[in-house]
Amino acid sequence: MAKNNYLGSELWKIRHSTAHVMAQAVRDLFPEGAAKIAIGPPIADGFYYDFDLPRPLTPEDLEEIEKKMQKVLSEEHEFVRKELSADEAREIFNDQPYKQDLITGLESGGVDEYGEPVDEETVISIFTHDDFVDLCRGPHVASTKDLNPKAVKLLNVAGAYWRGDERNPMLQRIYGTAWKTEEELNNYLQKLEEAKKRDHRRLGKELDLFSTNPDVGPGLVLWHPNGAYVRYKAEQYAMDEHLKHGYEFVYSPHIGKANLWETSGHLTWYEDLMYSPLDIDQESYFLKPMNCPFHIMIYKNSLHSYRDLPLRWAEWGTVYRYERSGVLHGMLRVRGFTQDDAHIFCSPEQMPEEIDRVLNFCLHILRGFGMKEFHAYLATRDPDKSAGDIERWDDATEALRGALERADLAYDIDEGGAAFYGPKIDLKMIDALDREWQLSTIQFDFNLPDRFDLTYVAEDGKQHRPYMIHRALLGSMERFLGVLVEHYGGAFPLWLAPTQAILIPITDRNLPYVEKAAEQLRENGIRIKVDSRTDRMGAKIRDAEKLKIPYMLVVGDREEEAGTVAPRLRSGDQLDPVSIEDLIDRMSEEIHTHAQV
After folding, report:
1. Which of 371, 591, 382, 318 lies closest to 486 in space, CA to CA?
2. What are phi and psi of 191, to 5 degrees?
3. d(Cα 496, Cα 229) in Å, to the nearest integer?
4. How far is CA 559 from the centre of its chain?
5. Tens digit of pLDDT at every position of the chain (597 positions)
6. Which residues are paired to 470 by β-bridges?
7. How many other CB atoms sit within 10 Å of the CB of residue 441?
8. Runs of H (alpha helix) within 329-422
9. Maximum distance among all alpha carbons in the chain?
10. Which of the listed residues 41, 162, 210, 231 has the most CB atoms within 10 Å of its CB?
11. In this structure, how many other beta carbons lie within 10 angstroms of the beta carbon of residue 101?
12. What is the 8-class DSSP label of residue 111?
């Protein structure tokens, strides 16, 4: 369900209401005001609530909380809304410091539970069910009878800083999920189990793809040979396609002088996510958080005519961003990563066609990796936070919208969600478990061409300002590998697999034939290994299956005499014996077509 359609929906109300019931149960587990309650919103696929408690929660506590919830859900209690003044609210929550903080925010400037401004006129309200009262905007279901006790499940406990600020107290966050029916809940729990099996951190270790090390630093990834080979093949394919589609490659340094980042605005708007400066020759340098200022400086190195445009410059550039340690997550959220970045400089007249080209190119590349379903978000201008002429904004937004519609892509409008420097498309891939993953971004920028005074000579002989389009296609190689691992469950298609086949001799006397077959396969570009261990064949096959190797090629006396191998697929399917030449033809075709078998 798209985010905008989810907010305020029936399922949203069910989960919001269930969060209140959970908070009531936690309060009852820690009587006499020992439980300090914070916030408990619905989220995608569930809800959470944050608590400040006298001790850490245990799995047994979650079971007890669920029992208390079931009792409330088996009864009928209306959710009753009441508006009140800030002073009245303070009196009700006089022993709840986090609610007091929320009330102050609402009273002083219309700031919601996340510290974000509230658009509408600020109204303080509470919701009551049974004997539980919570500070809340709602909405909720009418009664606990509208909540299905068999469709509710608590999932886990995690830590969370109050208001997401690590300078604030660490709270305990209980995650749960709620659905309309028991069947929907069971389907969701099955997906969670499958997601655990596909977790890229677990598979990354099992398949020996990557690691992190505290001696290197958090959020800094070490690519092992297997993961590096997947990355190499992914980059090779993507780079070749870039050249075919009119891109040129550039390279830029990892650091730049402070004045570059001052001109770009990063030191004004982005400094919290930049690493501390380096003092070099009594001047400050910064590790780059983005590649764009360097590409701009390449553009400014020479004069440009309208005949030169468009310029499409791409770089696999490694950037560094100081993400808080609490949000680091395997390959999906790191501090050092390599973006497949590109910047397009074009005239206003060329802009609509370039947007079509960029969007279709993104889809072409992602489909080459076996990704078939997408959902897009069009982020539009916030009138209070935007730079540049409205006319340029309107032209760019309509170009993005038109490209989405011509590509026949489902999309939602993220009203006012654009950065101050231009509208954008966020392209999300829907994986095998129907999860959305943010990959490609197509971002207009009216800010940097102005800041760096970019120009080109138009047909009228005068200097004009080019349009600039940022485009990250795979996003980052680290995140993309994490997404690929989870999408495929580690079972990469043949063309991406680090090891494409393994030869398994039944006895040692078959080894000479196996080694000769391996050499022939390698000469034809097949990534092959030989399992020459003395273990039984069944154990070797099981080990190869755990490593998700696409082809297991068994060789015994019969196969050696016939000059064949007996292929077994990682799916468990057994193929008829085949000659080495025919096997090479089969695998080569599968690799060439990027088959998703």
Report:
1. 371
2. -65, -40
3. 8
4. 47
5. 444 556 678 999 999 999 999 999 999 999 888 999 999 999 989 999 999 999 999 999 999 999 999 999 999 999 999 999 999 999 999 999 999 999 998 887 666 655 566 656 678 999 999 999 999 988 999 999 999 999 999 999 999 989 888 789 999 999 999 999 999 999 999 999 999 999 999 999 999 999 999 999 999 999 999 999 999 999 999 999 999 999 999 999 999 999 999 999 899 888 889 999 999 999 999 999 999 999 999 999 999 999 999 999 999 999 999 998 878 899 999 999 999 999 999 999 999 999 999 999 999 999 999 999 999 999 999 887 777 788 888 888 998 999 999 999 989 999 888 887 889 999 999 988 888 999 999 999 888 999 999 999 999 999 999 999 999 999 999 999 999 999 999 999 999 999 999 999 999 999 999 999 999 999 999 999 999 998 898 999 999 999 999 999 999 999 999 999 999 999 989 999 999 999 999 999 999 999 876
6. 343, 443
7. 17
8. 351-368, 390-406
9. 91
10. 210
11. 17
12. B
Angle at 492 between CA 490 and CA 493, to 5 degrees: 155
* Residue 253, CB-side half-sphere exposure with 13 Å CA sphere: 9
Q: How many residues does the chain have?
A: 597
Give the separation between CA 300 and CA 293, rounded to whole angstroms.
10
Partner residues linked to 339 by β-bridges: 317
Please answer whether residues 73 and 21 qualify as being in contact, where contact means their C-beta atoms are separated by less than 8 angstroms: yes
- Cα–Cα distances in Å, from 468 out to 182, 301, 317, 442? 51, 16, 18, 11
Q: With the C-alpha atoms ordered 163, 166, 169, 173, is the resulting torsion angle positive or negative? A: positive
The answer to whether the beta carbons of residues 220 and 247 sit under 8 Å apart is no
498 within 8 A of 226, measured Cβ to Cβ: yes
Compute the distance between CA of residue 60 and CA of residue 318 in angstroms, rounded to an integer: 45
Within 8 A by CB and 6+ apart from 120, the residues are: none
pLDDT tens string 583-596 = 999 999 999 999 87
Q: Residue with structure tokens 């989960």?
A: 15
Q: Is residue 275 packed enough to be buried (19+ CB in 10 Å), middle (13-18) or exposed (0-12)?
A: middle
3-state SS class at 573: coil
Phi, then psi, of 350 in degrees rounded to 5: -80, -15
**What is the DSSP code (8-state) at residue 574?**
B
For residue 583, what is the DSSP state? H
CB proximity list for 188: less than 8 A, separation 6 or greater:
45, 177, 179
Packed helices 390-406 and 351-368: angle between N→C axes, nearest 10 degrees: 40
Report whether 11 contacts 141 (CB < 8 A): no
Q: Is 572 helix (H, G, I), strand (E, B) or coil?
A: coil
Contact 17, 138 (CB under 8 A): no
Question: How far is it, in rounded angstroms, from Cα 38 to Cα 41?
Answer: 10
What are the residue numbers of the active site? Answer: 292, 321, 339, 341, 343, 424, 470
Please tell me whether residue 515 adopts helix, strand or coil conformation: helix
**Number of neighbours of residue 578 by Cβ within 10 angstroms:** 18
* Cβ atoms 141, 13 nearer than 8 A: yes
* The one-letter amino acid at 119: D
